[in-house]
Amino acid sequence: MDTHPATTLADPRLDRLAELAVRVGLNLAPGQELVMTAPVEALDLSRRITEQAYRAGASLVTTFFSDDQAALSRYRHAPDASFDAAPGWLYEGMAQAFGRGAARLAIVGDDPTLLAGQDPDKVARANRARSLAYRPALELITGTAINWTLVAAATPAWAAAVFPDLPAAEALARLWDAIFAASRADRPDPVAAWASHNAALMARRVMLNQRRYAALRFRGPGTDLKVGLAAGHAWMGGLSTAKNGITGNPNIPTEEVFTTPDARVTEGMVSATKPLAYQGTLIQDIRVRFEAGRIVDARASTGQAVLDRMISTDEGARMLGEVALVPASNPIAGSGLLFFNTLFDENAASHIALGQSYSRCFVDKALPPGALAAAGANRSLIHVDWMIGSAETDVDGLDAEGRAEPLMRRGEWVR
What is the tens place of the pLDDT at every residue in 15-30? Predict the structure, then answer.
């Protein structure tokens, strides 16, 4: 029997992670309802989070579990028409709960290779149907109507993808160790560690918001990219205050500061610095060219068909919805791991995201849809982050006249 401390039920880091999820991630308010989703393999962590939520005064915790094997059964045996359907009733219920003030917590840990052998057309159709059905609930989340957070739980399939050469028990233990380290749950006082980390991220946000750059320029191997910033944009990262007045951390872990680009004006070439795990496929060596804000050429050494489907999802899928700055020396990058999970991999390097913008990344957080579009915010069914930063990447901030100031050199902050 494996007795590695990261996998035993008595491991105090599990309780620390649960406490972080509730106190730091959600900052759950007394009397607030919580809606949680989790893979079935994360049952133990979900129970600990539920306990912490009730200790914090939650009125009701409702958890929905997903099962990878049930998902595979659909792809193997369901009729073709099934892949254009989604449980709209479920997502309508979630939207109603969020509209009434419920908080949202997602435990991530799904098998990143689960759908690698399935029909990519069916995968794309199923994701599109789900995205359409989920949009009313998702817009409440992305618009910060509520407090929400993401945390991770190690699962056997995910661990096997990250550590393919290790025995199953050792791989699972190593992944737990990596999650605890990245989430700061391995610190003597994780809550205090997060307070210090949030203060550092806030200092970066303040500096960038004071500079009011009109654009960013990324330069590195295979990259010379100009990303215009939306009119009235605001930099975010770390702590976020929802419209319900609650301040928490939407992502645990997080190392980024990010904002909304003007999706209409991105120009140049950009090469990914890490592979992108998307819909069960590893897309490697992504290289794209933007003209007038849109991808006009997209290449990959593997996963080309999936990349093509992704950027063809809708009109906004070829345009940017986010740009984020992350120092190359951050702890997640320092682990040397490819997590095959966006929550971690996007925090390993500066990145961009194709698709939907965040409406909260504006000085005026009450802008209506028309004003958001006029400012350059993008709209799409997808939001897919991929990494473009490294220890070889330089970033400049450009003012309205195009004058450049150095922001990062060789992946590290200089301002």
Answer: 999 999 999 999 999 9
